[in-house]
Design goal:
Blueprint (H helix, E strand, L loop, with lengths): L3 H18 L3 H20 L2 H10 L4 H29 L1 H28 L5 H18 L1 H13 L5 H29 L4 H20 L11 H7 L7 H32 L3 H30 L3 H21 L3 H28 L6 H27 L5 H20 L7
Helix pairs in contact: 2-5, 2-7, 2-8, 2-9, 4-5, 4-6, 4-7, 4-15, 5-6, 5-7, 5-9, 7-8, 7-15, 8-12, 8-14, 11-12, 11-13, 11-14, 11-15, 11-16, 12-14, 13-14, 13-16, 14-15
Pfam family, one: MFS_1
InterPro entries: MFS (IPR011701), MFS_dom (IPR020846), MFS_trans_sf (IPR036259), Tet-R_TetA/multi-R_MdtG-like (IPR001958)
GO molecular function: transmembrane transporter activity
């Protein structure tokens, strides 16, 4: 029996080596899941303390808003740039640059916060530097997810595309749920700066690991020649892609808008105190994130819907959830609405990446992933501004407008995608 032990140990080492260096699509998909998860965790771990540490750094509420908005503008402007760059130099370098770049800029960001906190009053130069650092950070926020989405499209067959993209959507949803929890716990046992340091370590560590874990290929398309042949005749810019992007915007508008409006609505419509509404809003977003993850797991394991089926169901669920918010002041129904919206957002976020990748040629996968990432930037800029403005007119008006936009997106999507996209 003993003579089998060395063979068993050798076999285990071979398995570990194969996982770390192998090009099997299954293993590469797991690595892309990790890259996406870590990239978004870097953002969401710091979200619970961002406003508080900005206030400690003597930033006024308006300056905090400008800082966050400029980060979203950077995401909007540079997401397609990173996507096109991944088409030219390969997915792996862009993923690595994205993770390590975010980590290094978080170091600059937290050091500027510490300098500003150390002063006794607002220093205009430091405020400008903090806003600039957030803009630079925004440049890298969608870098790794954009390249990971394009990489996933390269190694996934059209038939498996929706399911594989759902795994990356699951990574996004998981980071939305556990990121704020980790950040809140870290800040409670340490300082407001601790979540930033943890994000820095995670981003740089996994950025370095991806250098060794991902295959060093300039063009990943060769892994699926049949998929390439089926899409080479498709143009990048098309009415069909436009329909997908508008549908994706309608989903992201709601997700981003609710982040701003939830606590306000709980205070004004439900009658909760300011402190209670903030705590309840955090709970609702955890529930929304859990719902988002559950529907994505169900899609991967059971449903196997096409990308088009996922998006149509997504928008209908989001419209239903918004109507529940508009038609009720009951907290239980409000809770149900967030579960419904979370399910819709989960389907929409996953299907957008899959659908967009299926309507462009294989050599434009990076550009398509960049265009998808742009929807986050657009939503991050437009949704808070529009939502906060119309909320002052009527507290239910933002949800009505989001529902109407979703309905418009649904009609446009059906019209632009009359033929079922293979996935």
């Amino acid at each position: 029996m003993n003579h089998l032990e060395p063979n068993k140990g050798f076999f285990m080492l071979k398995c570990i080596h194969y996982f770390l260096t192998g090009r099997n699509p299954l293993f590469m998909k797991n690595k892309l899941f990790v890259a996406t998860l870590i990239s978004y965790l870097g953002i969401y771990i710091t979200m619970p303390v961002l406003s508080a540490i900005s206030t400690q750094a003597h930033l006024a509420p308006g300056q905090i808003g400008i800082m966050i908005s400029l980060g979203a503008i950077a995401m909007l402007l540079f997401a397609p740039v990173w996507g096109r760059l991944s088409d030219k130099i390969g997915r792996k370098p862009v993923i690595v640059i994205g993770l390590i770049g975010m980590g290094l800029l978080f170091i600059l960001y937290i050091e500027l916060f510490k300098l500003s906190i150390a002063t006794s009053k607002t220093v205009a130069a430091l405020v400008v530097c903090l806003i600039g650092a957030r803009f630079l950070l925004g440049i890298f926020m969608t870098t790794a997810p954009t390249a990971a989405n394009a990489y996933m499209a390269d190694i996934s067959s059209p038939e498996e595309r929706a399911k594989d993209m759902s795994s990356l959507g699951f990574a996004t949803g998981l980071s939305m749920v556990i990121g704020p929890i980790i950040g809140g716990c870290l800040s409670s046992i340490g300082t407001l700066a601790l979540p930033f340091y943890v994000s820095i370590i995670l981003l740089i560590l996994f950025g370095i690991l991806m250098i060794f874990l991902l295959p060093n290929t300039k063009n990943n398309v060769a892994t699926l020649e049949s998929a390439s042949k089926s899409t080479t005749s498709k143009k990048f810019l098309s009415f069909q892609l436009f329909g997908w992007l508008v549908a994706g915007c309608s989903v992201m508008f709601v997700v981003v808008g609710l982040q701003l409006l939830t606590s306000l609505y709980l205070h004004d419509a439900i009658g909760q105190s300011i402190v209670q509404s903030a705590k309840t809003a955090s709970l609702l977003f955890v529930i929304l994130g859990v719902s988002l993850m559950i529907i994505q797991i169900a899609q991967i394991k059971f449903f196997n819907w096409t990308a088009k089926q996922m998006m149509t169901r997504s928008i209908l669920l989001i419209i239903l959830g918004l109507l529940l918010i508009v038609l009720t002041r009951d907290f239980i129904l409000l809770l149900i609405s967030y579960i419904v919206i979370g399910a819709g957002a989960g389907l929409g976020m996953s299907s957008l990446s899959a659908g967009a990748s299926l309507v462009v040629s294989q050599d434009n996968q990076g550009s398509a992933a960049g265009a998808v990432a742009m929807t986050q930037g657009i939503a991050g800029i437009v949704s808070p501004l529009l939502g906060s403005f119309v909320y002052q007119i009527n507290i239910k008006l933002p949800f009505i407008i989001f529902a109407l936009f979703a309905l418009f997106a649904y009609i446009l999507f059906l019209f632009s995608n009359k033929k079922e996209t293979t996935n």
